[in-house]
Amino acid sequence: MATPSLRSSNMAASESGVQEDVVNEKEDSLTFAFLSLTQVSSLLEQDVNGVQSKMEEILNFSECQTNLKEAVLVDYYVSGFWWGKERNFTSLQLAGFMELLHNLMDNLETRHVTLEENLIELSRTMTGIGKSHLTRKGSLNFFTVEQAKDIIDYLKISLFQHYRLYEYMFKFPRDEMVICAQQVIETVKPADTPFPAPLEEGIPSAFHSKYLSPPAVLLQDTEETKAEINEMLKVQEEAYTAKIEILEKP
Fold first, then answer.
1. Which of 11, 18, 129, 243 could be disulfide-bonded to 148 (CB atoms 3.0-4.6 Å)?
2. How many CB atoms lie within 10 A of CB 23?
3. What pLDDT, in 10s, does the model give residues 134-184?
4. 46 CB-near residues (< 8 Å, 6+ apart)
5. Residues 57, 62, 68, 73: what is their CA dihedral angle, to the nearest 10 degrees?
C-alpha cells in the first residue's frame, strides 16, 4: 500500500511531466513561415554582421548595396532580430516576434493596408498574452505582459513612426539610374627633337615652331647661308691679303 508522501510525489511528477509535454507539444505545433526555430538558433550564434549576411540569404536579396528596397527590408529585420536578442528572447519568442514583424510588413507591402488596419491586426495578435488558457492559432501567448509592452513600444518607433515612408517606398519604386562619366585623355606624342613637345597651354605653337623647334628646311637654308657667307669672307680675305702683298713690294 502506497504511503501519502509517495502518492503525492508521484502526482507531482506526473503533473510536471504533463506540463513539459504540453510545452514541447506547443513548440512542436508552432510553425513560423518567416524564420524557423533552426534558422533562429543559427542567427543567435552570429554577430550583427553575420546576422545581416544570413538575413540577405534568407530573403534572397543580392543587390542590397544598390537596391533601396532590399537595403531597407534587411535593415528592418536585422534591427528587429538584434533588438529581440538584446531582450534575451528565447528562440521561440524570437521566431514569433520575427513572424509578427514579417506579417505587419507584408500587410503593408502586398495588401497595402493602412496604418489603422495594421494597428488593429497587431491588437488581435497580442490578444491572449498573459492568459495561458488561450491557445488560439497565431497568438503570441509565450510572451509575458511586460514583453508585449516592450514589443509595442518598439513597433511604435520602428515601423509605425515611419509608416508613410514605407508606403511611399512600396508605392513608388525608384528607377534604376546608371551614373557614369566618360573621359578622353590625349597622350603626348613623341617629340622629334631632343626636348619634349610643349603643352598646348604652354606657349603658342608658332613661337615654338619658329624659335625652339624650327623645321628641317629652315635649318638646311641656314646652313647654306652660313656656307655662302663663309665663302664670301674667304674671297674677301684673299683679296685683302693680295693687296697687302702688293703694297709690301719695293
1. 129
2. 12
3. 445 556 788 888 898 899 999 999 999 999 999 998 888 776 666 677 777
4. 53, 54
5. -10
Distance CA 162, CA 170 (A): 13
- Placement of cell 508606403 in the chain: 167
Split at pLDDT 50, 70, 90, the class of 78 is: very high
Please, how many CA atoms are within 13 Å of residue 158, restricted to the half-sphere of its CB?
A: 19
Consecutive H or E run containing 196: none
Q: Where do the structural domains in the chain lie, given as residue ranges?
A: 20-171, 205-248
Cα separation, 168 vs 122, whole angstroms? 21
DSSP reduced 3-state for 204: coil
**pLDDT computed for residue 215 by the predictor:** 62
